[in-house]
Amino acid sequence: MSRKIQSRNLFVRNKSKSPRMRTYFIGLIALIGLIYASIFLLPAVPNEPNFPGAPTYKIQIKPQSSLASISDQVYAQGIRSYPFFFQFSARAIFVATKLKPGTYLLPTGASVGKILLQIARGDRVRESLAIIPGMTIWQLRGVIDSHPALIHQTKGMNSKALLQTLNLNYPGLEGVFLPDTYIFDPDDLDINIYRRASSAMQKTLNQEWGRRDPNLPLKSPYDLLILASIIEKETGKSEDRGKVAAVFLNRLQKGMPLQTDPTVIYGIGPGFDGNLRKADLRRDNPYNTYMNKGLPPTPIAMPSRESIYAALHPLKSNALYFVAKGDGSSHFSSTLSEHENAVDRYQRKSPSKVNQQK
User: Fold this and answer.
1) Whole-model pTM?
2) Cα separation, 12 vs 26, whole angstroms
3) End of a domain among 77, 95, 121?
4) Total domains in the fold of the chain
5) pLDDT tens, 292-306?
6) SS (H, E, C) 110-179
């Protein structure tokens, strides 16, 4: 009898605790709901943009920033969230270790939670800069120096100093940056564009040089770079690239001068007015391939991957000459007489053009 009474009293005591537990859990759920509501519902981004002409609010997060540093940075840039709450929120929604640096355009009135999720996704502003195949170094430096989203550390730096900064062992800067579109964050350093482009070119040269035909008349990857730059400037249509490469390699094999106008134009420099005169062809300088045999001393432009490949994998051809047909393509000839007939057909019909044998 006493055992039954004792067990009944125990049941009553346990039953009396269940409302407390329910109250505890309800309170806990309410607290969690309040926390998440404050994270995702309370506005943290000001309603007014912080730079003119845009509907969004811009913030920047520095590379390699810790969560504490990020919280201080966004608070200093006007985000209405104390650093402690920003860090707490990041941990609460499990993104504390996923936040990425960069420039972000935030919706005005957005909550801390929305800010954190956008930064964790890396949904940031990106900028781009294109190095166009055939671009010269002075053209490239002008493009980089004038890009508004870059911090300009190299503007005014001479070629020797820039080569040293990039740890490049070349006679000059021409040709050593691989044409491509380079994506970067706003306020990146301009030296980083040069560094990425030169590393990409070095990697491409090393890969292609390792696959070369050893019988080609090229002594080094730098020779390859020089020839590829000439092919780049002389190719009007991509399907002619292998044939253009064959002409120049055939000429090198036979000890013939390359006789290519773009090298002469490069020797004239940025002041070239677009009109190549006979006097220019008679003026001796290292880039005049009418007067000097072999390759010029440096590249004459930034060659594409396709031109580098063509220099090492020319089309099988006996052609020694080519002439522009006027539509971007070229006519290729194996003999001088055939070439002269092609010049008569495609160029001498227009007396305003300077006619030169390649």
Assistant:
1) 0.80
2) 22
3) 121
4) 3
5) 999 999 999 999 999
6) CEHHHHHHHHHHCCCECEEEECCCCCCHHHHHHHHHCCCCEECCCCCCCHHHHHHHCCCCCCCCCCCCCC
